[in-house]
Amino acid sequence: MRRIRWVAAAVSAAAVVVSSVTPASASDGGLGRFYHQRLAWKACTLGPGDEVGAQLDAAGARCADVTVPLDYAHPEGRTMTVAISRLAASDTGHRIGTMILNGGGPGPSIDLPPYMRELMGAAGPRYDLVGVDPRSLGRSGAVDCGWPSATWIKGSGETRRSFEVSVGFAEDLAARCARTNGAVLPYISTRNIARDLDVVRGALGERKVSYNGASYGTYLGQVYAAMFPGRLDRVVLDSSQDGASWGPRLLAGTQQANEHALSHWAAWAAGRHATYGLGDTRAEVLATVHRILAASARSPLVVGRYRLDDTMLPVVLADNLGTDEEDARATLAESVRVLAQAAAGRPVRPTPALDDELAYVLTGTDSRDGSGQAAIICGDVAAPRDPAVYWRDVRRHRRGSPVFASMSYDIGPCAFWPARPAEPPTRLGGPLPALMVAATGDTRTPYERNRTVHRLLPGSRMITLRDADVHAPYQRGYPNLCVRDRVNDYLATGRLPARDLVCPAEH
Prior knowledge:
18 helices
């Protein structure tokens, strides 16, 4: 299973900008040389330790760098490269076309083709599957601001004092990006990523491409469809993000879905009290979580080499509520058991999974992950600048969401971002015969956001996965044959269901 995070991996930002190139004719807006460039396909492994490249090479994929303008308003100027991978169709006699993949985040997606080929069943070998690292991420001129954390997501904590600490944290993140990457931040946005995708389409020699996007990838797909109508063939949107809630405050409104998922997990853990010792009723397990949160507000929990306070505990919990699969629930229960012991003042060491989680959110080892993600989000939509706005919203929602309101409404680096969005957000909507997948208990893109997108896309059909707390069920490989078979049938035939469908949970 491919883990889908809110933030995803990236690499060094050292070479975003390269030399100028010779202008093309004015009749094509100066973009003809980009659309008609010849790609140099090569092995994907960049060097020792490149696991993604090695996996792509083992699967038979090839990689290339696509040259695009840094600034599409001035295509005669500086350029950058966007990294792509391609796993060519093996069933050439029944080849359907090229499909571009995006796994959300925003994060890199160059690794997706082998995984998606397996997931797509009989349809997989009939496509050239293309993974693209969006600009600012992965191998595409990644932004790395040298952050002390891999994520920009943080909670306000339980007090005004802890909120002020989170304000300082957000301001510091933005300042680091201004110092290290200020020259390129104005050119990082979803609209420019969509333009890059169209250059990729042209460079691949395709008149149309199919598209399969999850989470942020659904927003990118909608932006691409609006900016370049008529260039998409078969489209899958898996856990859709609507345009109205996209931006620096995209977590606002997700708190109740996370509280519900936490409650469902608590009921599961209560049934296994003999194993985890967290309480033998749902209420008792939730009380354990609340005690841990209260203890972390008094003093950071000591978990091995880590210190976990009330500003980051909700992030750790939420990051483990992306699916209700048995293994994921057990992992969270094991982590909460350790945290409960730490809250009681006992010396503890993290489980391997918790160690990985805490290293990710509490150290700067993967600072490039959140840096590139924030660059896109802050480049798309301006954030309120007044910290009082965020504190007011945290207080307003805390009663109804005691664990997750502080995370969902807290301030972030976009409030202090050095570059304002260069363009207004894209107006989304219009005819797009896409197949949508939505889970009623989605904790990242709540079900109502999916319904909003569905209403804006006449001709789309939506598969609702009922009674499941999971984000991006298709791309995640969630064990539901009803969803998987219907998506794969559409990818193979191009025929949308005659009407919206409901798939019951299968666990």
